[in-house]
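Batch 3, record 17
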Amino acid sequence: DAGVIQSPRHEVTEMGQEVTLRCKPISGHNSLFWYRQTMMRGLELLIYFNNNVPIDDSGMPEDRFSAKMPNASFSTLKIQPSEPRDSAVYFCASSLMGSGQHNYGYTFGSGTRLTVV
Amino acid sequence: AQTVTQSQPEMSVQEAETVTLSCTYDTSENNYYLFWYKQPPSRQMILVIRQEAYKQQNATENRFSVNFQKAAKSFSLKISDSQLGDTAMYFCALSNSGYALNFGKGTSLLVTP
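Prediction for the assembled complex:
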């Protein structure tokens, strides 16, 4: 099991450019989460998918952010246009939510460090 | 609404000693899960230990154990025989059934020789 795979590991982009972060969850997991980590705000949930369907996107900062999960093995988080305040580490995590919503734990990817200059 | 509070921003412990990290939480749910995650300088988020709220018994994983006090909404992590590799940020997290993790702000632990 390769774990949750995120790419790229680092991204440096200029303000105004489009940025796409990618995530491959663990095979068989049915829930996927995007988190953002900053010194000021800690770890914040951006969006949560269950069975490829967005369940809660209330954490998405604004319309510049969008996330998709076209199938069970792939998700993207897109920022367009990017701004310096978007600089952060973005984590993807996946989980298996069982019957009765039994929670078996969450596995995180290694994160993408985004720097917008 | 759920909240997770870690009141110790930084702690240090000598190698081979025992240290306890504090965490309190608030939730209106009866069925929930609590976690401790470790984040070393590599930034990887590593699951340390998991506790199901409906289980009375405190979870244990090798040198790591928790003191789960449901009525007091307290979930502390004890690290025994501390090792240099335990140096990391430690995050307490809460999840209601079928939902996302809600994290505390973290405690930075330094293990010194």
